[in-house]
Amino acid sequence: MIRIFLSTVCVITQFAIAQMNCDNMALCVKNNYYISGSLKNDLCANRESYYINYNTAMEQSTVKQKYSPLKAALFSAVIPGAGQFYTKSYFQSALFFSAEVLFWILYVQYNRKGYIQTENFERFADEHWSVLRYTRWIETFYPAQFDPSVILGNPSNDVHNPWEYINWSKLNEVEDKISQLATQGQVTGFTHRLPQRPEQQYYELIGKYSQYGSGWDDASYFTPSDVLTSNVSPRFRSYSQMRGRANDLYAVATTATYLIVANHIANALEAAWNAARINKKLVTKSSFDIKQRGHYYHLEANVTLSLEVQ
After folding, report:
1. Using one digit for the tens of pLDDT, what is the confidence trace for 146-164?
2. Which among 50, 60, 74, 139 is least buried, having the fewest CB atoms inside 10 angstroms?
């Protein structure tokens, strides 16, 4: 009875396998096998009657999204190092965050130094350069182009806040008239119009162009020829160097802002790449074998399961 039962199980198994649509299934009939009508005789007649081998292999791949590259990139774009902290890459996180702190320290320090230096050279200019002195120099050397209405009242050259005694629109008109002398063959060196104090251009021009050299309190010797030869006074040169120093400090601060932006961008890209690198691709493989050999009708089932981490 046991033998008939096992034989029946084998045939049923063979039939079930035959119904499956599987590329890896093999049904092999050896020699000749005839149906007699008797279940017992048909199952047990031939010792080498048939060989059944069913083998199927299944593979499944899944990506384990342990960290989101998008989240990591957004975190680091806002706060450098945050994306690496999110992926538990603590060394990279500390590195990028330290760089961010360093760049901000550079920006704050050099911007503050530039601001202090700017205050210093503006104070120096207010103490040693006078728009009244400059205007009266024009009146002396270019009387035909000068308009007396430029000066409001009759203040001295050393008056406090001399810019308050100037009609700036009239002064600019006089400067234009002098510069137009070049069309008549007379080169004067006048190329700019003086902006009104305290505009940034006001402080830039008086220490940049020799046209304004006569306004310094140590330029009593100044003549139109000195404008053309840039024979400016020592205070003009000192002031120019002070301004240059302020510009250098601001340039470092500006570079620090570029580095801050670059750090945010580079950090966001690295965080996304790092998250993608950490995420592992999991591959599962399984196989199932059913075998039957000879008249003993051994039923063998082999199941193999493997896990591969790439």
Report:
1. 999 999 998 988 899 999 9
2. 60
